[in-house]
Amino acid sequence: MKQINRLLFNPLLSLVLICLSIGLGGCITTGLPVAVSSPWKAVNLNTNASPLDVSFIDSEHGFLVGSNRLILETNDGGVTWAKRALDLPEEENFRLISVSFKNEEGWIAGQPGLILHTINNGKDWTRLFLDTKLPGEPYLITSLGGNHAELATNVGAIYETRDGGSSWQASVNDAAGAVRDLRRGPDGSYVSVSSLGNFFATWTPGQDVWQVHQRVSSQRLQSIGYQPDANLWMITRGAQIRFNNSPGDLENWSNPLIPITNGYGYLDMAWDPEGTIWIGGGNGTLLKSSDDGKTWERDPIGSGEATNFTRILFPRKNKGFVLGERGHLLSWIESK
């Protein structure tokens, strides 16, 4: 009898018995509440390619690009998307990684070695051939209007054109080295994460070289970007989030936040126009915080998607998208 009592009051055994009584599904918990509603709606892109970037010309007309030469166009604000064809060699499987418009002028950067330019709202695209000595592959392109654009490569080289891509001038004397993530700030500054995630680097227009900064913990960096106030945020392995709220002091970071531990890491973070923080990651992980990261909820639409969410973008006011692998896309529908 004593042996039976010991078994019954064993905490581990009690947990097993509870799980068995409610089924295996009830044993798995993320530790976060599920939001009552969601501002996101799943969009069927009818493709297995992975969307990688989105840019809009106006509130209704935009383009989405991705792997396997994916280019889609919308004329209804992203509710529906139609496939577009590009005049590219069939034998080359381009990865269209970045798209950017300013008014009717747009640019696409792809790999390997691809730059496309349009001056008529994407109706026609012209391929520009880059110098074979260009360090690295195109990674991020920014349309600045009037035949003016900025190109960053996957080794942190930054180039600028003011003649529609006929010529490019280097903006930085030394590349940052191979990167896993690279973002451009609203003032033209850049931040990048090294390919191994062991340091990050920053560059501000006018500087000759990238400024290298060591990571703030033993956890390797996953991604890094800009908060709405232009300060930085970072995501590290182990699903940790940190914020830099000390302008000019990039060694001063907040304590790590770990909203959820479910075995899947975070891949991107963004703020919607209402100030809510969104985090996307593996296996349909999509979390939100409406109080600057103090509390978090799981998004019910995101958790139903069998994909890894790689990017969260708000390209225009009241326009947002969550990009997932293998043709998954969520569109933000909360505000009008």
UniProtKB/TrEMBL annotation:
Cellular compartment(s): Cellular thylakoid lumen
Keyword Signal: yes
Residue ranges of every copy of the Photosynthesis system II assembly factor Ycf48/Hcf136-like domain listed in the record: 33-333
Coiled coil: none
InterPro entries cross-referenced by the UniProt entry: PSII_CF48-like_dom, WD40/YVTN_repeat-like_dom_sf, Ycf48/Hcf136
Pfam families in the record: PSII_BNR
Protein family (similarity comment): Belongs to the Ycf48 family.
Protein name, per record: Photosystem II assembly protein Ycf48
Gene: ycf48
